[in-house]
Design brief:
420 residues; alpha+beta; Rossmann fold; Elongation Factor Tu (Ef-tu), domain 3; 20% helix; globular; binds guanosine-5'-diphosphate; GTPase activity; nucleotide-binding
């Protein structure tokens, strides 16, 4: 076990090999229980297919895939020489934006998977854009499925060029990105340097993971716990559940739920089916608050200390980057904003400034419209109460994605909140 911890997002276009890569990382780092591998090894040998243990991991993932749309390889853990890694997100085929908002903002760094035979695809763009907006520090780009393109260096170079161009487009510092030709399926350049890529002499994927910068220590922000669901459990009563983003929750604390604007004393906290006296950032908890009924609170509420309650925005100012919009965005536009566990229609009340993306300077005051590729400061009015925080104070609760027509239109960071 390592003392140091990293939350890692695995992002990339569907079918480019994210699940396979996570399976491979679990396998190579010995994170699949030995008895499970042993069992599969025996089965494989009986069938005359020795050396297929890795297939076991993948079979399991395939089974999971059949059961649901999203392969739940999020929350898997593996340990390298330097870090304990938790996969905080691996976007499935749907809902990946919600995952990115709740996932990438917690992720310290990310692995971007790009299939060598397909190159940059729509979700590659979308994920890179969100990773950049939501504050991923470093990207490791696994150019995957090198086996499919016969380990051709020129194909690899083409993909590297294409991704580099994309990174520049979204102003991601390309010094913070490293490229590795891999095959998640065959295991090339994952744990050991591959003989199939003699033209590549830099890091393997595990070496690159070990070399990631250490994450910033968590902020000393007050308790913020976005509510994911609210259950009624016999013998206990109303049990809101969610993940603590910042701060600590203790039994006996006086808490407040916003924007529902109710509160009370924490009676019990449960984690992994056990009662605990307190819970910390990253903990998924269910808890019970004296006097709170099932209809008093809902998904999208944020729980915080009664004396430092979560902010509720009448309006807020934010910096947004428009990723893709078929036409132009003008004041009055009212798409759905996704922030932590909340989804609320919000009106862009005014477009205050357009920024020059390369310099960060104001390019135009009060522009009439913004469009794809533009960065701007805008004032936003939620159509229903929304709890959100300035990104400078509580970054975990300070970012959002704007969705419309089934796509991510823009993403942003909250600059200022004007409370009710
Ligand atoms: P995801 O949607 O990004 O999670 O992609 P998957 O991991 O489910 O992979 C999609 C398909 O590509 C599956 O059939 C995998 O077996 C295959 N695949 C993934 N990685 C590789 C690779 O490195 N080489 C080859 N040949 N196939 C791969």
């Amino acid at each position: 076990m390592s003392e140091r911890h990293q939350n890692l997002a695995v992002i990339g276009h569907v079918d480019h090999g994210k699940s396979t890569l996570v399976g491979r990382l679990l396998y190579e780092t010995g994170s699949v229980p030995e008895h499970v591998i042993e069992q599969h090894r025996e089965e494989a040998e009986e069938k005359g297919k020795g050396g297929f243990e890795f297939a076991y991991v993948m079979d399991n993932l395939a089974e999971e895939r059949e059961r649901g749309v999203t392969i739940d390889i999020a929350h898997q853990e593996f340990t390298t020489d330097e870090y304990d890694f938790t996969i905080v997100d691996c976007p499935g085929h749907r809902d990946f934006v919600k995952n990115m908002i709740t996932g990438a903002s917690q992720a310290d760094n990310a692995v971007l998977v790009v299939a060598a035979d397909d190159g940059v695809a729509p979700q590659t763009q979308e994920h890179v854009f969100l990773a950049r907006t939501l504050g991923i520090d470093e990207l490791i780009i696994g150019v995957n499925k090198m086996d499919v393109v016969d380990y051709k260096e020129s194909t690899y170079d083409d993909v590297v060029d294409e991704v580099t161009q994309l990174l520049k487009q979204v102003q991601f510092n390309t010094d913070d990105a490293s490229f590795i030709p891999i095959s998640a399926f065959e295991g090339d350049n994952i744990a050991d340097a591959s003989d199939n890529t003699p033209w590549y002499s830099e890091e393997t994927l595990l070496e690159a993971l070990n070399d990631l910068p250490e994450p910033q220590p968590p902020t000393d922000a007050p308790l913020r716990l976005p509510i994911q669901d609210v259950y009624t459990i016999s013998g206990i009563g109303t049990v809101p559940v969610g993940r603590i983003e910042t701060g600590v929750m203790n039994i006996g604390d006086d808490v407040s739920f916003q924007p529902s604007d109710v509160g009370g004393e924490v009676k019990t906290i449960e984690m992994h089916h056990e009662e605990v006296p307190k819970a910390e950032p990253g903990d998924n908890v269910g808890f019970n608050v004296r006097g709170i009924g099932k209809d008093d609170i809902r998904r999208g509420d944020v729980c915080g200390p009664a004396d430092e309650p979560p902010s509720v925005a009448e309006t807020f100012q934010a910096q947004v980057v428009v990723m893709q919009h078929p036409s132009v965005i003008t004041a009055g536009y009212t798409p759905v904003f996704h922030a932590h566990t909340s989804q609320v229609a919000c009106t862009i009340e005014s477009i205050d400034k357009k920024m020059d993306p390369s310099s960060g300077e104001v390019a135009e005051e009060n522009p009439d419209f913004i469009q794809s590729g533009d960065a701007a400061v805008v004032t936003i009015r939620p159509q229903k109460p929304l709890s959100i925080e300035p990104s400078s104070e509580i970054p975990e609760l300070g970012s959002f994605a704007i969705r419309d027509m089934g796509q991510t239109i823009a993403a942003g960071k909250v600059l200022d909140v004007n409370e009710k």
